């Protein structure tokens, strides 16, 4: 990767090395003002694989610009699967109710606790100076 850090193939890393590399990448992205969101439904290996295969292979609008932050939401594709995962793991009860009212023909998944607890540990952008 040209951004100044290496991204070995996911299959080349054992679980411990992959987790360490994942957090190295997360911190490096945050230093470049790219912040991840909605990752708690993915294992470390699944998140790293998604970053390696998909997310960091695309052009990111605003990434690397001198001003502002970029947010990369794992569920930002708006596919049916993304919407189901959003409703299952991340949406508030109000968001779920609003979505159900707007799209009554779509089945609402049951609310579940995400299998992983990573998002609260992710780097966050600093609030703007006043």
What are its keywords?
single chain; 130 residues; mainly alpha; 2 domains; 4 helices; 2 strands; 6% strand; globular
List strands and helices in order, with pairings.
Layout: H1 15-31, E1 34-37, H2 44-53, E2 70-73, H3 80-90, H4 93-102
Parallel strand pairs: 1-2
Helix content: 25-40%
How many domains, in number, for the residues?
Answer: 2
Q: Please tell me how large the radius of gyration is.
A: 16 Å
Largest sheet, if any? 2 strands, parallel
The shape is globular
Estimate the mean pLDDT confidence: 88
* Number of helical stretches of at least 4 residues: 4
What does this molecule look like?
It contains four helices and two strands; from the N terminus they run αβαβαα. The protein folds into two domains: 74 residues; 39 residues, no CATH class. The model has no long low-confidence stretch (mean pLDDT 88). Helices cover 37% and strands 6% of the residues. The protein has a two-stranded parallel sheet with strand order 1-2. It is mainly α. It is globular.
Summarize the structure.
The chain is mainly alpha-helical. The protein contains four helices and two strands. A two-stranded parallel sheet has the order 1-2.
């Amino acid at each position: 990767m040209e951004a100044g850090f290496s991204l070995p193939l996911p299959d080349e890393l054992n679980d411990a090395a992959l987790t360490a590399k994942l957090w190295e990448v997360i911190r490096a992205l945050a230093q470049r003002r790219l912040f991840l969101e909605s990752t708690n439904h993915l294992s470390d290996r699944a998140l790293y694989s998604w970053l390696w295969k998909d997310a960091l292979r695309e052009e990111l609008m605003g990434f690397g610009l001198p001003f502002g932050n970029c947010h990369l939401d794992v569920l930002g594709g708006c596919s049916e699967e993304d919407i189901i995962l959003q409703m299952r793991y991340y949406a508030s009860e109000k968001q779920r109710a609003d979505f159900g009212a707007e799209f009554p023909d779509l089945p609402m998944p049951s609310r579940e606790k995400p299998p992983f607890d990573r998002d609260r540990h992710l780097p966050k952008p600093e609030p703007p100076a006043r």
